[in-house]
Amino acid sequence: MRFVIVTGMSGAGKSSALKMLEDAGYFCVDNLPIPLIAKFAEIGLQEPEMMNKVALGIDIRSGEDLPQLLPMLNQLSLSGIHYEILFLDCQDSVLVKRFKETRRSHPLMKEGRIEEGLASERRQLTFLKEKATYIIDTSQLLTRELKSEIDKIFVKNENYQSFFVTVLSFGFKYGIPADADLVFDVRFLPNPYYIDELKAKTGNDKEVSDYVLKFEEAGIFLEKLVDMIEFLIPKYMNEGKNQLVIAIGCTGGKHRSVTLANAFYQRLSGHAYGIKVEHRDIDRDRRYIQH
Fold first, then answer.
1. Domains, in order of start, for the chain
2. 10 is an annotated ligand-binding site residue
3. For 168-180, what is each residue's pLDDT tens digit?
4. How far apart, in whole angstroms, are the C-alpha atoms of residue 44 and residue 77?
5. Of 48, 115, 124, 279, which sits with the fewest C-beta atoms within 10 Å of its C-beta?
6. pTM value surpassing 0.85
7. Which of 194, 191, 167 is nearest to 181 (CA)?
8. Distance (Å, rounded) from C-alpha 159 to C-alpha 134?
């Protein structure tokens, strides 16, 4: 029996993750009282055909029973029941925005502020995050991207490391992304904007991509960047970091940065950690021209 505990911060996507696991054939139960977990696991062992894959949603809603979870997990281990913990995390600023957009109250908010409820929740869930088998930070993830990560771990059974990389192209004239961990400037490369047949195209178009990448400096930059990031990621992981936003910028975020971000994404794809590429400003000039 595969026994998964889905937990994490309120608003980080636990309900969505449970639904995805249910669609993948897992027998899912949300907010099961902690004193019943051991009994539930025993039933699962007795009904291997019906409950060979199980997922339990456990979080701050357990209230005063939450501290009982750690000895309960130890009891499962002593009983020979192997469990995995999926911890869904998210930046506080994103969680606050999600709560305000949905007009929901944080379960620990009471009469205080959302930030106070989140801080209390983080303290109470620290022991679960430390024991987590997998940590997925959903701050930058779309629902389909979360599903892809869930499928990697629990459907395809791929080797997975709790780390997610976002490669983000942007235009300096629109500002440096506030959430960027590392920022790289590719304005040293010739600008396709000044070539009439390329001006209206983007780095997603082959003509622009071929033009940018034909310069020797572009290849050298990519090689050095890949080498540095592959060196840094294990160091970040050892320090407990679980996501990295790498921003690559040019003047307008349409040609050079998009091309290099795509090429860099392709170089890093295939690693055990999750990765995606985004183009923040690729349509800004186009929208401006249309209006």
1. 2-154 (3.40.50.300), 164-290 (no CATH)
2. yes
3. 999 999 999 988 9
4. 15
5. 48
6. no
7. 167
8. 11
